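Need tokens for this chain, all 515 residues.
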Amino acid sequence: MIDQRQPSSSTDGVPLPVGPDVGRFLVLAVVFVCAACGLVYELELVALASYLIGDSVTQASVVLSVMVFAMGVGSLLAKRLRCRAAVGFGVLESVLALIGGSSAMVLYAAFAWTGGSRVVLVVFSLAIGVLIGAEIPLLMSLIQRASRRDAEGTVADLFAADYVGALVGGLAFPFLLLPWLGELTGALATGAVNAVAGAVLVLWLFRRDLTPHWRRRLLLLNAAVLALLGLAAVLAGDFEEAARRAVYGDEVRVAVRTEAQEVVLTGPPSGPPDLFLDGRLTVRGRDAHRYHEALVHPVMNGPHARVLVLGGGDGLAAREVLRYRDVRSVTVLGADPGLVDLARTDPGLAGLNGRVYGDPRLEVVQEDPFSRLRLAEPRAYDVIVSDLPDPAAAADTKVYSLEFYGLARRALAPGGRIVVHAGPPGSRPRNFWTVEATLAAAGFATTPYRDRSAPGGDRGFLLAAPDAAPPLSLPEGAPPLRSGLRERLSGAAPAAERTRLSGLEPSTLVRPRYR
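Here are the structure tokens for all 515 residues:
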């Protein structure tokens, strides 16, 4: 409990160790730091929830809406502490530093060991929001204690420092914290900064407002918080490795965090690796050919000298394309450069893709697919292979939009075709058939087909062309296939049609319809 004998933090209290202007500046500096830390906590939760749960729009909406609501609750609760603002702020910042700094680690632990993290996400969003919302009323009391100026000017200064701090925190998160420290250590470091800022303000500037009893308590509390955050930072590497084993098993061969995603290769050293991207199995080494043969070979039935592969940084789609000797050029566009480097250098993954990145016909363009197609020459490609995550897992659904498919249609030469991996028709039929409706709205005639022998159990594809629906068949002279695709193709289209949903609207940039 807060000591009720503590002196009031009104302007009539014990003088501060500095002048009013310096005291005012120091309070505003702490407002700036706290605002930056608070926004980092929010962005950490959004980023990690999007990675662990998927659907970044939903996760951002949940975190931000819950936090804003909780900030209002925190502001109301803080009214009871304004008469003891120094102690209240000191305790609040210590608790916020501990909860905010550990939030990413706890959320990751919940995902790794229980498989669910939505409840933890909401609980931390509420807790952090309440604590952030309580800051401003207490800081208002402290700045009035430091400097007796007009209330209107004080409010303006406080909010200016708060907003500028939020700007700095928002920019520091993607450009400094994530690249240098990563999500877990970045959150812990932010908590440490938060704790130090609160401690300096209360234990030095407003130390005369505290009883000796409360000075000792706050010193011990801040020391404990900093010790816990420091210990967690030291153990972060071991924790991440243990959590990774809990998610992927004991046979993790490679784990790297690229600028775009977490890439993990698992499996025994002597066998082909399984590839996980952001925790989702993308390639099962022993039967990876099933998915990629189903994706690539039907669309090669026609002119295919110039091929564009969207995504596909693992090189497996390009491997299937380059099995055709009359292919003159393959452009891999928009692939994660970290995944491409791993596919070039890792012996297991390079062996799985046939060391395709050494083929002189292959070019890697690390550019946003939407921007690249806007600038592409008309009729530049005979075939476009969209080897991207399905809309439910994609971080950016603009590559499944009407506008994007319009650009793809312009980039196709006469007789050209596109194939799109559109997710499982069985479990996500609305997303699958929304992609089909979007292709149709862009001027494509489509042939949907489904392959349940591929890794993941159910994969849906859309084969499309601008003029007429292309036949679902293999080209003459197709290379030998290991998956038995030729025999399965006859039932692939009816299997997809059985899941059809009618009357769906196309997805656009301003009206995305995937969920």
